[in-house]
Amino acid sequence: MATVSDRTVRRTAKVRRNVRRAAGSRARLSVFRSSKHIYAQVIDDAHGLTVASASSLEKDMRGSLKTGANIEAAKAVGKRLAERAAAKGIKEVVFDRGGYLYHGRVKALADAAREGGLSF
Q1: Which of 38, 60, 77, 90 is deepest in the core (most CB within 10 A)?
Q2: Bridge partners, residue 54, by sequence
Q3: What's the CA dihedral at 78, 79, 80, 82 to 10 degrees?
Q4: DSSP strand E in 25-92: where?
Q5: Domain residue ranges in the chain
């Protein structure tokens, strides 16, 4: 019988594989959600480089946010990530939800990134 962590790893790998297949030459916006914080990266899979990143764990974000585990924090991270990616010349990405449901904090981060100028 597969454990919960085995199923999670399989689900994450399946989502990531399909995203990479659909990406073409676009960068990948990857999200990681923990119980206390949310992290996002724009990754260039062709070169294996992280182009831009943002998280609710950053020093100035911690001061302005009540907690890193709510929708407001996810919106702030998405907006900051979009600004950093635009500064590096990235406008088109493919969204990698990483096995999480597209709901709540993950959706808020994606919507804020779209508002910030990323297209996916």
Answers
A1: 77
A2: 40
A3: 80
A4: 27-33, 38-44, 49-55
A5: 4-115
Burial status of residue 97 (CB atoms within 10 A of its CB: 0-12, 13-18, 19 or more): buried
SS3 29: strand
Per-residue model confidence as pLDDT tens digits over 5-22: 899 999 999 998 999 888
Q: Per the structure block, which two tokens stand in for 95?
A: 């969204």
Give the strand pairing for 27-33 and 93-96: parallel
Contact assessment for residue 38 and residue 72, using Cβ atoms and an 8 Å cutoff: no
Task: Tell me which residue of 9, 62, 53, 14 sits closest to 31, measured CA to CA.
Answer: 53
∠ CA(93), CA(12), CA(77), 5° rounding?
A: 45
80 in Cβ contact with 110 (< 8 Å): no
Q: Looking at the whole model, is its pTM more than 0.85?
A: yes
